[in-house]
Amino acid sequence: MIDKNAVDALGTRVLGPEHKSVPPSAWGKEIHEFLAQHPRLSQFQTPLLTVDDGRMRHNVDVMAAWADKSGVKLAPHGKTTMAPVLWRRQLEAGAWAITLATVWQAQIARSFGVERIMLANALVDPVGLTWLARELDEHSEFEFTCWADGIDTVRAMTAILDKAGATRPVDIVVELGGEHGRTGARSKDEARAVAEAVAQSPRLNLVGVGGYEGALSHDRSEKGLAAVRNYLDAVGQLHRDLESAGLYSGAAIITAGGSAYQDLVVERLASFADEQGDRGVPTSVVLRSGAYIIHDDGFYSQISPMIPSRSEDPLTSAMHGWARVVSRPESGLALLDAGKRDLPFDEGLPTPQSIDDAEITALNDQHAFLRFPDDDATAPVGTVVRLGLSHPCTAFDKWRLIPVIDDADADDPRVVDLVHTFF
């Protein structure tokens, strides 16, 4: 499912100043050579983002067991980390595929030998679609699925694939959206028309239905949960309609899921994997949650169904920021050397975890404003502050190389790996 040799080869890359916060003493060394010296976190410069090895392994195991027990397949969204070494962990734990958002991301995955990819988006870029046609024709083991939500998308894809001389049809999931949502056909009738157009295209193959329920709610209020349930029920009904109409040429998939409502996906859709409709179409339910491998101390720590208050085996945050006090310009205020270019902020500001009664009130490009009750003895210049973070999808994209530590709670954790990201 992934080329292990290609992933392992990342360890031979040479470290240099382009790798933010890596110590200058490591420049010129291959990654495996540097790690053989058993470096400690204190050797790295600040600011810094780290991930905890044990916590990631725990999260991968928890999610794999939960999906297996629930009767669904996992195709974790690889855009969260864009890290092949972490995709490998997910695939080795039983993930069915890797989901991605853009054709360029899919090309990265293919360069590391990922054999089954779901593109949770429409693909109408002529250059990208021509590449895909060639990749499918040249590699019979490669399985690829993308989405369509309009007849114009079907026509555009068909025309581009015709021009490219494609011989293998591209598998298509029809995307159902919702009012005020993101992409997706806005009604089941519109979605059925798209499915019929796909079924009639000689270059496309209808394989399922799906969408993204996270666009319809941002909390777990009764209203929000009801909106998600209603949407998922509509996705399930669309599948039944297409099945009854005989539009599937073979086995089908139903796909949904972010990292906020995977319990509702199982609640409303998992049963489709255990039954066959009028025409006996074998159906798989595919969950695309991506953030679970990292989790967080912010948005997902509140909304996920897999937190201590909602689960006996919860996920735990595997990422932390580390920033140093560089200025104490006034009482009760410290400026840290980490800002928007280093840490996520779109789903909540970082939270100090090593200083009591303190909070981050703002981020500039390269600074964080740490405020606390007036106390000149708190956080003197040079103090390193551990930060809880929110939203891994906008944390990883700021780092080319992320240290993996053995224990985030240790006084000076050991760095056991360096994760390459591709953004």
Automatic annotation (TrEMBL):
Gene3D superfamilies: Alanine racemase, D-serine dehydratase-like domain. Keywords: Lyase. InterPro entries: Ala_racemase_N, D-amino_acid_metab_enzyme, D-ser_dehydrat-like_dom, D-ser_dehydrat-like_sf, PLP-binding_barrel. GO terms for molecular function: lyase activity. SMART domains: D-ser_dehydrat. Pfam families: Ala_racemase_N, D-ser_dehydrat. Residues 318-406 form the D-serine dehydratase-like domain. It comes from the Bacteria. Belongs to the DSD1 family. This is D-serine deaminase, pyridoxal phosphate-dependent. It comes from Rhodococcoides kyotonense.
